[in-house]
Amino acid sequence: MTPIKKRATNFSYKEEKTLLALVKKYASTIECKRTDINSNKLKAASYEKLAIEFNSVCGECYRSPKTLRSKYENIKKCGKKVFSDERAYLRGTGGGPAKSTSSSEIQSEL
């Protein structure tokens, strides 16, 4: 039987901002579209470095490279969804009440 992992705390606003700032630092390797073995090794090494820097800056809770990677991909995915929804609304016919925009500052930094 596998032991149950304890759930970590949610990412704070400060942690999300720090993560995005560090991702920008390593963007050339992290955002690379190539998926061969060498590129994947470089990406993993970049996330290791990123995790060390992240945990030294944000000492609230330890975050593994896997956790940081999934959080960054989730932020990107949510940002794309918000952008897509805004574009779909702009292409609409105009019937009904106006839609309020609620994109956060985190998503606008992507």
UniProtKB/TrEMBL annotation:
Q: Does the keyword Transmembrane apply?
A: no
Signal peptide positions (record) = none
Query: Any idea which UniProt keywords this protein has?
Result: Transcription, Transcription regulation
Q: Which residues does the UniProt record annotate as the domain Myb/SANT-like DNA-binding?
A: 7-81
Report the InterPro entries cross-referenced here: Myb_DNA-bind_5
Region annotation Disordered: residue ranges? 89-110
Q: Would the keyword Membrane be found if you checked this record's keyword annotation?
A: no
Q: Locate the compositionally biased regions of type Polar residues.
A: 99-110
User: Which superkingdom, per the lineage?
Assistant: Eukaryota
Summary of subunit composition and partner proteins: Self-associates forming complexes of several hundred monomers.
What is its biological role? Involved in transvection phenomena (= synapsis-dependent gene expression), where the synaptic pairing of chromosomes carrying genes with which zeste interacts influences the expression of these genes. Zeste binds to DNA and stimulates transcription from a nearby promoter.
Q: What is this protein called?
A: Regulatory protein zeste
Provenance organism: Macrosiphum euphorbiae
